[in-house]
Each structure stands twice: as structure tokens, then as C-alpha cells.
Amino acid sequence: MGPAAGSKKAVASDKGILPNDKMVYFHSLVGLAIMAIFWFMSPIEPITPVGMKVVGAFLGMVYLWSAVGSLWPSLIGLVLIAISGYAGQGALGFKAVFLNAFGADVVLLTLFSMILFGAIDEAGCTKYIARWLLTRKIINGRPYSFMAVVWFTCYVISALVTPITGLILMWPITLRIMDSLKIERSDKIWPYFFVGMFAVMTLGQPFFPFMGAQLIVVSAYGSMTGVPADLTPVPYVPYMAFNFIMTMLLLITYILVLKYILRPDVSKLKGVDADQLAKEQPLPAMVWPQKLMMLMIPLYLIMLLAPSFLDRSNPVVNILATLGPLGVTLIWVIFFTIIRYKGKEVLNFRDVAYKQFNWGIYFMIAAAVYGANALSNEATGVTGFLLNVLNPILGGQSEMGFVAIMFTVALILTNFANNAAMAVVLMPVILAFCGQMGLNPLPVAMGVTMMVFVAMLTPAASPHAGMMHGRKDIYSTGEIMRIGFPICIVSLIYYIFIGYPLAKMLF
């Protein structure tokens, strides 16, 4: 086809609406229709008239978050809640919604934590972390040790930044290793290696409760349960321990199943050489700003966790408790903005924000947390409605039966819709029935929080799942389903029978 033909095709596309654009318009209309239907419907007792409008706005946002995007659906949802009269009538009520939604400390924490941890990636620190882990001599001639180190590296990078960053960084490295070892696409170990790599990334994503999409869920839980502003919504150490223990159990299980049951040929991986990898992945010596950022990571965690363990009568501990996660994050952002290297700020706020800041998550957190709080408010009557409707299904269940149903629903929904949004939707149900059954809601809520990140079976499961499904040179849909589906089922079983009892002990 010559240039002329290509030009005609481009002109035709300009004059028409592309198929993808048509689907966006279709889903947009469906989401807006959901909002409109609830706006004009007669109230379903015990939901109040205002409650119906809030429910419509929230459900419309959930649909649009999954099918279209995060930014404008969040804004229109907040607009509808604002004009519903939920926060008061007229201009004062309208302003109150946006002031409370975007003035919440969790929204500000999202902004500055994305900048701070984005700066770590911009400085190239994640590359040094990956190189250090992948050049340990324990991998020499040991195929399963090599795979374990690769997968653990994926876990660390996903937890520190995002799974998307992890995939962008790790795909080229691992593909180059596979090529050097003459491992081909047709080799049996190939799909197990790469699907396992993705699974660990998605399981590791919610490790830190104070950043990323998991912050939406954690903050919604805190908002619905009325956690005071000077306290964290969930205790950080038990939360991180919960994610780490469960992910490592699942990783060990995956390795054992591969080694002793499936037994793919891994003989080519015996050629892995840590020294050779170090030569093939050359990086310049770290400069002092990079070392300082690497040091910041453990110091940041210590500053966040110290008030949980040390006596607050100590002036330093008291200051850290006063600062909280938002204040500690701001201190580090200010520090790295002040110090300079070669005439430039170590943290160039504008550049890092341009490359690393995710506006979709920012607006979604504001809308999701405020909307979730509105749903659980007595003025809407939603909690009473959920109790009435779901009581025949969940009311007569045992504790483990209730947990199994909630975790299963979370797993199914997250593979077809936005993961954080699905957890927020389930949160009022968890709180209502845990209250009715006399259960501590925190272990159930945190189990659901982890389950909604076991998202890999469809492109709609998460942005990084969409990336995985799009790499047809690495993954086929059949391989993802054949390997990913058992991973999801085993994860569900583990979280029900191991994770929930563990969460009850930790929390």
C-alpha cells in the first residue's frame, strides 16, 4: 500500500468516529443513565430521597470507572452528590462537598506520596534495586532460586511504585535473559515464568496502605467506621505483614507446584550466571542523591511506624504522631526539593508530577472516599436497605460462610471491574453484617482489600492486566486463563482458610 492509500485511510478516520470511541460514548451513556434513573426513581425504603441520588451517583461512578476512566466520572459523581442536597442546600452545600472531598488528608496524601515515590523511580533507584536482586550468586545454576529472586524483585518494585512500572522495567530484562539462555516462546517454562511474574506483581501492589489504589479502600473503611482524623484507618504493621505473609505463602506454593507437580523443563535456566547478568545490565555507580533516596525508604517507614510502638510522651515521637503520614511525606518532599545536585533540585516537583502523577487515581480517591462516606451515612438509609435485602443470603451464614461469600464476590467482581471501586462497594455490606453478627469488621475488610487485587483474568481487571493481555508476544489469552485461573482459585482458598484467621490474629 502506497502513501496515497494511507492518506485516504487517515482522512476517512478523521471524518468518522472510531469503533473504540463509539464504545466510550456507549459506556458513558450507560453510566449517565444509571445516575439519571436513580435520580428520578421513587425512594425504595428505607433509602431516603437524597440517598437514592447518592446511590445513583456512586453506582454510575463505579460503572464509568471500570468502563471509561477515572477523571471525569469522579467529577460528575461529586457534582451530582453536591446538588442532591446531601451536604446542605444551595451554593454552600455544593461547595461543602468539594471542599470536604478534595480537602481530605487522604487526597493530599495521595498527591504527595505519588510525587515522593515517583521521584524514586525518576531517579533510577528501581533499576538499581532490580539489578542488585538479580545479581545475587544464589541464582547461579539454580533455576528455581533464579525464578524466586525474579518474582520477589517484581514484588518489591510493585510495592514501592506500581505494577505498571514493574512490568515496564522487568519485561525487557527478563526477555533479554530468556534470549541469552535460548529459552523460546514454545518452551513449557515460558508461560509459567511470565504469568507467575505478573501474579506476584498484582499480589504485591497493595503492600503499602498509604499509597496507590489500596489507599482508596483503606480510607473508605476509616471514613465509614468513623476513625478519628488523628489516627490511621488501619494499623500499618499488621496490614503490611498480612500482605507479605500471604503473598510469600502463595509464591512458595507456586514454586513447589512447579517443581514437584508440573515439573516443566528448566534445564536451560541452569545457565543463569549472576556475574554475566551484572555485565549485561551495566549501570553507572550510584550518585549521592540516589543513595539518599534509597536511605529515605526505610527512614520513611520508621517515621510512620514509630508512633505505633514508642511512647508518645517522647517529643520526637509526639511530633511524628502529630505529622502523621501526610506530614511525614511532606517533610521528605520539601527536603528533596531543597537539596540540589549539579545545579538542579533532587526532586523537581514539576517534572516528577508530569511523568509520575496519576490524575485518575487522585480524582477517584476524592470521589470514592467521599461517596463511600455518604453511602454509609444514616441520612441516606443505604445501610438499612442492604441489611434488609442481603439478610436472607448472609444473615443465616456462619462466620466462615460469610467470609467465603464476601471473598468470592470480591474475586469475581475485581476481574471485570475496577478493583478499588469494588472493595468500596462491598465495604458497607461488610460493616453492616459484621455489626449484626458481632464480628470485628477489620479482618474481613482487609481480606477483601487484598482479594480485589487478585485481578488478572481479563483486560478490564486492572490497567496492568490490560498491559499483560496486550503483550501477545509474551502471553496468550489461553495461557493466562490456564495458569491464572488456578492462581486465583488457590489465592481465594488461602485467604479464606489461612488469610482470615491470620488477619484476626494480626488485627
UniProtKB/TrEMBL annotation:
The chain crosses the membrane at residues 24-42, 62-85, 97-120, 144-171, 192-221, 241-262, 292-310, 316-339, 359-376, 396-413, 444-462, 483-503. It is found in: Membrane. Keywords: Membrane, Transmembrane, Transmembrane helix, Transport. Residues 63-448 form the Citrate transporter-like domain. The keyword Transmembrane helix applies. It is a multi-pass membrane protein. Its main location: membrane. The keyword Transcription does not apply. Pfam families: CitMHS (PF03600). PANTHER family: MG(2+)_CITRATE COMPLEX SECONDARY TRANSPORTER, SOLUTE CARRIER FAMILY 13 MEMBER. This is SLC13 family permease. It comes from Dehalobacterium formicoaceticum.
